[in-house]
Specification:
Layout lengths: L2 H25 L5 H26 L2 H5 L3 H48 L37
């Protein structure tokens, strides 16, 4: 592959990466797990392709120096756009990570505080058998509902 062809390929891959990062950043709040997994797979493949092209082009410094100035300027502008898209994406991913950790911490705290309460047995409906023993005085009160969470984060 010639240097010119590699530069064209690098531009194409960079445009694809920018587009993917922007879509992922915008859709961060609405993506379901399967869709997010597709983003990760595509991002990984494009990133590997990008890295290979950049490494190969670095070995062709003389060819790159002889490129027309407008081509060099276009590549610099494209790289700057890519860096900005990557920074926005990283901030969004970090915010999502922090939000997920807070949610997990809240769930763990709630479960631990609930586990520390003295609970007797549960009936078939998942309610505490003895609500009166928990300080409730009316027979209409059905007690606490037992809930379990089976999710992997």
């Amino acid at each position: 592959m010639t240097t010119e062809q590699m530069v064209i390929e690098l531009k194409s891959v960079t445009f694809d990466l920018i587009s993917l990062l922007e879509r992922e950043t915008e859709g961060m709040r609405t993506l379901d797990t399967a869709e997010y997994d597709r983003f990760v797979s595509e991002k990984s493949a494009l990133s590997m392709q990008y890295e290979q092209l950049v490494q190969e082009l670095r070995t062709r410094g003389d060819d790159l120096k002889s490129m027309p100035e407008d081509e060099k300027a276009e590549l610099r502008e494209l790289q700057a756009r890519f860096q900005e898209a990557a920074k926005r994406n990283m901030r969004a991913l970090k915010a999502a990570e922090i939000t997920n950790q807070r949610m997990i911490d809240t769930i763990v705290k709630a479960v631990k505080s609930r586990a520390n309460e003295q609970v007797t047995t549960y009936n078939r409906g998942g309610y505490v058998n003895s609500p009166a023993g928990r300080g409730y005085s009316t027979s209409k009160n059905r007690g606490s509902l037992s809930i379990s969470l089976n999710e992997t984060f």
